[in-house]
Each structure stands twice: as structure tokens, then as C-alpha cells.
Amino acid sequence: MTASKWDLLDAAHAALRSVVDAVPSDGWDRPTPCERWNVSQVLQHAAGDQLGYAARLTGGLGPAEDPFAPSGVLAAAPAQLLAPALDAAAEAFAGVAPGTAEVAVPLPPFTVPAEIAVGAAALDAAVHAWDIAVATGLPSPLTPALAAALRPAAEALAEPLRGFAYGPALLPAPDAAADPVAALLAYLGRRPDWAPPDARRGARQE
């Protein structure tokens, strides 16, 4: 496991790694908050995105397949698929100095300040960790402190990516307005109260 020397990115990577390690064996085909993608596809996307960030920084190889068209067929065990991607991103960002004015990222606007670039990679990992957790009945790894730390990157980058990487922003429920996690998820177009379809059916029957 490689550390990036950026606490925010390391925390987001740890969140994603811990969730993937805990997915039950029958969880990989379950639906997720990412419409049209199951858990396997979200994992492929998340790993591919981290490889994309690493490739933009180092000029090395990016993901083998398009992260926005994941096949759902895992080429290796989940942890073995994820680990090299996280290590590559961590190693790449370890070479980025705080305060650097222009750092390359794989999505528009393609160059941003160092802190926003790190936040963007961390945002991707942490939110997809939440996607996988809620899809498989695991505790959310997205803490209020982590969500609050990710919000500046979300605000800097989400708008140009609406309809592509993020959905339209949602209004959080009034009682969730003070919750950084719910506010971040809603801003990114995710329903903070999302639950798998079978869980929603069970709740209606009770």
C-alpha cells in the first residue's frame, strides 16, 4: 500500500479499499446509486479513474478499458484489481508539491491547482466507496469530516461534468442541510437516502 503524502487522498483511498475488501461474495452484481452500473462496474470505474489520474501526472499507461463503459467482468480478484490503481495514483500524487499552480487531471478543465487535483481524485474514490457500501449493506465510509474536506473540489469541478460524471444537483432534505455527507451527495446528484431496490420493497411491506 503506497501513501501519497496527501492526507485527504490517503483517507479516501483507505475508504475505498476497506469497502471493497468487505463486499460479500454475492454482492458484485447488485445495483448501485450509479444508474445502469452494478457493484463490479463501479469498482472497475473507480479503479480506472485512479489510473487515469496517475497517467495524466506521469505520462504512464492509463486504464485498459474506458472507465465510463465498464464491462462488469473483473479481470482479477477485486482487491487485486484495485490495489495497483490506488498505488499508482498515490505514487503519482506523492510527487505533487502543495501549492503547485497547475496540475494535470484527466477531466475538464484538465489543469487545476494541486489541492483541487488531489481533492478531485479523493472525491472520486470516496464517493464510489459510498456507492459500493450502500449497495451492499455496508457502513458508509464517507464521514462528515471527509465529506467536508471534499466539498471544495466538488464545487470546483462538478459543474462542467454535469450529465457526464455527475447528475444534476439535488436539494438535500431540510433535516439534512447541516449534514456534510448528505449535502455533498446531493450536490453531486446522488440521493443521500438511496437504498437497493430490495431494501426499499422490504421497507414498504413492513
Description:
- The chain is an all-alpha fold.
- The chain has one domain (7-162): Four Helix Bundle (Hemerythrin (Met), subunit A).
- Helices cover 52% and strands 2% of the residues.
- It is built from 7 helices and 2 strands.
- It has a two-stranded antiparallel ribbon.
- The longest helix has 23 residues, at 114-136.
- The chain is globular and about 45 Å long.
- Residues 9-133 form the Mycothiol-dependent maleylpyruvate isomerase metal-binding domain.
**Total number of helical segments?**
7
Specify the CATH class: Mainly Alpha
Q: Mean pLDDT, nearest integer? A: 92
Low-confidence runs = 202-206
Q: Would you identify the CATH architecture?
A: Up-down Bundle
Morphology call = globular
Q: How far from one another are the termini?
A: 44 Å
Tally the beta strands.
2
CATH topology tier name: Four Helix Bundle (Hemerythrin (Met), subunit A)
Q: State the fourth-level CATH superfamily.
A: dinb family like domain
Give a quick account of the main beta sheet: strands, pairing sense, barrel closure. 2 strands, antiparallel
Structural class: mainly alpha
How is the quaternary structure best described? single chain
Which value, in Å, is the CA radius of gyration? 16 Å
* Helical amount: 40-55%
**Helix-strand string:** HHHEEHHHH
Largest sheet strand order: 1-2
Beta strand %? under 5%
Pfam family, one: MDMPI_N
Protein name: TIGR03086 family protein
InterPro entries: CHP03086, DinB/YfiT-like, Maleyloyr_isom, MDMPI_metal-binding
